[in-house]
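Hi all, posting the design record for the shared folder.

TITLE: backbone redesign
STEP: 1 of 1
STRUCTURE INPUT:
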Protein backbone atom coordinates (compact mmCIF):
# COMPACT_ATOMS: atom_id res chain seq x y z
CA UNK A 1 0.00 0.00 0.00
CA UNK A 2 2.83 2.34 0.85
CA UNK A 3 4.48 1.66 -2.53
CA UNK A 4 1.26 2.55 -4.35
CA UNK A 5 0.85 5.76 -2.36
CA UNK A 6 4.48 6.70 -2.99
CA UNK A 7 3.96 6.14 -6.71
CA UNK A 8 0.79 8.23 -6.66
CA UNK A 9 2.50 11.02 -4.75
CA UNK A 10 5.39 11.07 -7.20
CA UNK A 11 3.15 10.99 -10.27
CA UNK A 12 0.71 13.54 -8.83
CA UNK A 13 3.18 16.39 -8.94
CA UNK A 14 4.63 17.98 -11.99
CA UNK A 15 8.21 19.24 -12.22
CA UNK A 16 7.35 22.47 -10.38
CA UNK A 17 5.67 20.68 -7.42
CA UNK A 18 2.05 21.40 -8.35
CA UNK A 19 -0.68 18.74 -8.30
CA UNK A 20 -2.23 17.83 -11.60
CA UNK A 21 -5.99 17.78 -12.22
CA UNK A 22 -5.92 13.99 -12.72
CA UNK A 23 -4.33 13.54 -9.33
CA UNK A 24 -6.92 15.73 -7.62
CA UNK A 25 -9.79 13.84 -9.25
CA UNK A 26 -8.27 10.50 -8.26
CA UNK A 27 -7.80 11.73 -4.71
CA UNK A 28 -11.44 12.93 -4.49
CA UNK A 29 -12.72 9.60 -5.84
CA UNK A 30 -10.63 7.80 -3.22
CA UNK A 31 -12.08 9.98 -0.43
CA UNK A 32 -15.64 9.36 -1.68
CA UNK A 33 -15.06 5.60 -1.78
CA UNK A 34 -13.62 5.51 1.74
CA UNK A 35 -16.52 7.61 3.08
CA UNK A 36 -19.04 5.31 1.39
CA UNK A 37 -17.44 2.20 2.86
CA UNK A 38 -17.43 3.73 6.34
CA UNK A 39 -21.13 4.60 5.97
CA UNK A 40 -22.03 1.07 4.79
CA UNK A 41 -20.08 -0.51 7.64
CA UNK A 42 -21.81 1.76 10.18
CA UNK A 43 -25.26 0.77 8.86
CA UNK A 44 -24.34 -2.93 9.03
CA UNK A 45 -23.15 -2.62 12.62
CA UNK A 46 -26.42 -0.89 13.61
CA UNK A 47 -28.39 -3.69 11.95
CA UNK A 48 -26.44 -6.35 13.82
CA UNK A 49 -27.01 -4.54 17.13
CA UNK A 50 -30.76 -4.29 16.45
CA UNK A 51 -30.97 -7.99 15.65
CA UNK A 52 -29.00 -8.90 18.77
CA UNK A 53 -31.28 -6.73 20.92
CA UNK A 54 -34.39 -8.36 19.43
CA UNK A 55 -33.01 -11.86 19.93
CA UNK A 56 -32.13 -11.14 23.56
CA UNK A 57 -35.65 -9.78 24.14
CA UNK A 58 -37.15 -12.86 22.52
CA UNK A 59 -34.97 -15.21 24.60
CA UNK A 60 -35.95 -13.40 27.80
CA UNK A 61 -39.64 -13.60 26.86
CA UNK A 62 -39.40 -17.32 26.15
CA UNK A 63 -37.56 -17.88 29.45
CA UNK A 64 -40.20 -16.06 31.50
CA UNK A 65 -43.01 -17.80 29.59
CA UNK A 66 -41.37 -21.16 30.33
CA UNK A 67 -41.20 -20.33 34.06
CA UNK A 68 -44.90 -19.39 34.06
CA UNK A 69 -45.90 -22.50 32.07
CA UNK A 70 -43.87 -24.77 34.37
CA UNK A 71 -45.48 -23.23 37.45
CA UNK A 72 -48.94 -23.61 35.93
CA UNK A 73 -48.41 -27.23 34.86
CA UNK A 74 -47.17 -28.30 38.31
CA UNK A 75 -50.45 -27.22 39.89
CA UNK A 76 -51.53 -25.26 42.95
CA UNK A 77 -48.92 -24.76 45.64
CA UNK A 78 -45.97 -24.86 43.24
CA UNK A 79 -43.85 -21.74 43.00
CA UNK A 80 -40.62 -20.57 41.48
CA UNK A 81 -38.37 -17.57 42.02
CA UNK A 82 -37.24 -15.64 38.95
CA UNK A 83 -34.89 -12.66 38.69
CA UNK A 84 -35.11 -10.42 35.65
CA UNK A 85 -31.85 -9.25 34.06
CA UNK A 86 -30.58 -5.70 34.53
CA UNK A 87 -30.79 -4.71 30.86
CA UNK A 88 -31.33 -6.11 27.39
CA UNK A 89 -28.26 -5.27 25.33
CA UNK A 90 -27.59 -2.25 27.55
CA UNK A 91 -31.13 -0.89 27.11
CA UNK A 92 -33.96 -0.43 29.63
CA UNK A 93 -36.95 -2.73 29.11
CA UNK A 94 -40.11 -3.93 30.80
CA UNK A 95 -42.22 -7.05 30.53
CA UNK A 96 -46.00 -6.92 30.40
CA UNK A 97 -48.18 -10.01 30.29
CA UNK A 98 -51.73 -11.17 30.72
CA UNK A 99 -53.65 -14.33 29.90
CA UNK A 100 -53.11 -13.89 26.15
CA UNK A 101 -49.33 -13.52 26.03
CA UNK A 102 -46.12 -11.92 27.17
CA UNK A 103 -44.78 -8.69 25.66
CA UNK A 104 -41.31 -7.23 26.11
CA UNK A 105 -40.86 -3.55 25.28
CA UNK A 106 -37.29 -2.43 24.63
CA UNK A 107 -35.95 0.56 22.73
CA UNK A 108 -39.26 1.26 20.96
CA UNK A 109 -39.73 -2.33 19.81
CA UNK A 110 -42.03 -5.09 21.05
CA UNK A 111 -41.29 -8.80 21.35
CA UNK A 112 -44.10 -11.32 21.89
CA UNK A 113 -44.04 -14.76 23.52
CA UNK A 114 -47.05 -17.03 23.63
CA UNK A 115 -48.62 -18.19 26.90
CA UNK A 116 -51.21 -20.93 27.22
CA UNK A 117 -54.60 -19.58 28.13
CA UNK A 118 -54.48 -19.12 31.91
CA UNK A 119 -55.44 -16.62 34.55
CA UNK A 120 -52.57 -14.40 35.68
CA UNK A 121 -52.51 -11.73 38.34
CA UNK A 122 -50.10 -9.53 40.22
CA UNK A 123 -51.88 -9.65 43.59
CA UNK A 124 -53.09 -12.15 46.16
CA UNK A 125 -56.63 -10.77 45.74
CA UNK A 126 -56.78 -12.19 42.19
CA UNK A 127 -58.06 -8.89 40.78
CA UNK A 128 -55.31 -7.60 38.51
CA UNK A 129 -55.48 -9.48 35.24
CA UNK A 130 -52.13 -8.25 33.97
CA UNK A 131 -48.62 -8.05 35.34
CA UNK A 132 -45.69 -5.75 34.60
CA UNK A 133 -42.19 -6.92 35.43
CA UNK A 134 -39.28 -4.50 35.83
CA UNK A 135 -35.57 -5.07 35.20
CA UNK A 136 -33.23 -6.32 37.92
CA UNK A 137 -36.07 -7.44 40.19
CA UNK A 138 -36.86 -10.78 41.83
CA UNK A 139 -40.34 -12.25 41.41
CA UNK A 140 -42.22 -15.09 43.06
CA UNK A 141 -44.33 -16.99 40.50
CA UNK A 142 -46.94 -19.09 42.31
CA UNK A 143 -49.76 -21.37 41.20
CA UNK A 144 -52.89 -21.11 43.36
CA UNK A 145 -56.64 -21.83 43.29
CA UNK A 146 -59.49 -19.47 44.04
CA UNK A 147 -62.75 -20.31 45.84
CA UNK A 148 -64.32 -21.51 42.56
CA UNK A 149 -61.40 -23.95 42.03
CA UNK A 150 -59.92 -21.91 39.14
CA UNK A 151 -56.14 -22.06 38.86
CA UNK A 152 -54.33 -18.72 38.89
CA UNK A 153 -50.71 -17.73 38.37
CA UNK A 154 -49.72 -15.03 40.86
CA UNK A 155 -46.57 -13.05 40.04
CA UNK A 156 -45.39 -10.81 42.86
CA UNK A 157 -42.25 -8.81 43.44
CA UNK A 158 -40.18 -10.24 46.30
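Okay, here is what came back for every position:
SEQUENCE:
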Amino acid sequence: MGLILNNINVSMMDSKGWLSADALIAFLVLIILITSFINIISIRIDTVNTIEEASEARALGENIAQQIETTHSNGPGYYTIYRTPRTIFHEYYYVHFNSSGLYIFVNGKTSYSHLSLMRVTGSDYLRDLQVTMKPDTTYNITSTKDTLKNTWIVVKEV
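COMMENT: Residues 119 and 133 are 16 Å apart (CA to CA).
Let me know if anyone wants the other runs.
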